[in-house]
Each structure stands twice: as C-alpha cells, then as structure tokens.
Amino acid sequence: MANESRPCPCDIGDRFDYGGRGQEVQVEHIKAYVCKPSASTDKAVIVIHDIFGWQLPNTRYIADMLTTNGYIAICPDFFVGQEAWKPSNDWGSFNDWLKTRNAGKIDKEVDAVLKYLRDQCGAKKIGVIGFCWGGAAVQHLMLKNPHLKTGVSLYGVIRHFDDKSNLLHPTFFIFGEKDDIIPLEQVTLLEQKLKQNCKVDYEVKIYPGQTHGFVHRKREDINPQDKPYIEEGRKDMINWLNKYL
C-alpha cells in the first residue's frame, strides 16, 4: 500500500542536504553522532531521535544547534543497528516494526552514553531532549534515571507513558496544537496528572497552529506563519536547558 494518502508527519521538510559538523563514534555496543563546541564545557545533551533514526539530517542539525549554544551534543543509535523507519514503508506494518523498538527499553544504551560523556568528554551536567519516539523516551528517563539533570520532550508520544507522571527531574513538554498523532485531550490529561503527582518543575506548552515535528523542520521550507513558532520552540528548548544545566 502506498503512503501518499498518509504522508509521515515527522518527514516534512527533512534537511537531506545537511551534512553535519560533528563525527560518528562507537560508544560500546552502539554508534553515535557527537558534536563538541570549540570552548571546553562540562555540560552535555543526549539527543534522542524520532522513528527515522540517528542519521536523520534534521536531528543532526538540532544537535549541532545545541553545540553552537555551548553544549556537547550526542545522538546515539537507540535502535542499536536495527533499521530506522522509512517514509516509503507500508504504514500497515508500523505497529509490528515498533514492537521491536521500545522507547522504554533504552536504559542500557543511556548508561553507555552517560559513561562515554563523563569519561571521554568530561561532562558533569547532562540533560536529554527527544523528538516523537524520542520524546516518549525522554519522559521514560525523567521518571527513572537519577543521573540526568533535566529533559525536553518534543511532541513525545504520550500514550507510551500516559500512566506515569511522577517525574524525578525538571521537564519541558512541547506540543503542536494541530498534531494528528497527539490529540489535545491527551495533552490536557498529561497536565492534570503532572499537577497531581509531579513534585519537580515542569512546563507543558502548546504552540498554536503547529503540526507534528515542527521544531526540527528544514528552515527553508517553513511557512511564514509557522516560522515564529518554530524559532520559539527552539529558543524555549535552549532556555530550559540553560536554566537546569
């Protein structure tokens, strides 16, 4: 079945022409893309990719943007060599594909990356951001990993962890108002549960008119009315990291 009737929302405006300014390294059993600022720093951010995997130019562009803001940025292959989703794949097979890529089962990889950042990069304050599948992974890590300082979940798929809201660390949730993947009712319910159970700082922000994937879209393809919100989302993400790292 062709996908023309259901174009993938993460796929809009991919920076296929973007090469990246970092390098690929081996971190124990996984590969990772790493970018370091020119000045030394003890602050690092783990970037968790969406369903299109660690090599997606969009995601590497965001990692590089973090580096220009003074952070060591690392985007590991959290699919551990398994194939990333392709826009040409049949959506009918998506749920089966997803079963072998659980956003709540990345702890072994995160531990390896944390060790690498501490031992090889001198990082002491480490945060995490993630997009879509990776946004759900951020929520998972904010619920359980004591070694991370803060997280930003960008349009993280709420249904993966919608019953858990007692966060350990300050967490910023970014959502688009017109996201077909994450209905606003789910966002409202998340806010209610956070209000009831969360004892650390958090923020849930909905960006008007925005669809899934809006923060890591190709800049040249931005609609004029979307551009301010895309820039605002990126700035909010950086400001949150700056506040807690």
From TrEMBL:
Keyword Cytoplasm in annotation: yes
Keyword annotations: Cytoplasm
GO molecular function: hydrolase activity
Name of the protein described by the UniProt record: Carboxymethylenebutenolidase homolog
Chain ranges passing through the membrane: none
Similarity field: Belongs to the dienelactone hydrolase family.
GO cellular component: cytosol
This protein's encoding gene: Cmbl_1
InterPro entries (UniProt xref): AB_hydrolase_fold, CMBL, Dienelactn_hydro
Subcellular location: Cytoplasm, Cytosol
Superkingdom of the organism of origin: Eukaryota
Domain (Dienelactone hydrolase): residue spans on this chain: 30-245
Pfam families xrefs: DLH
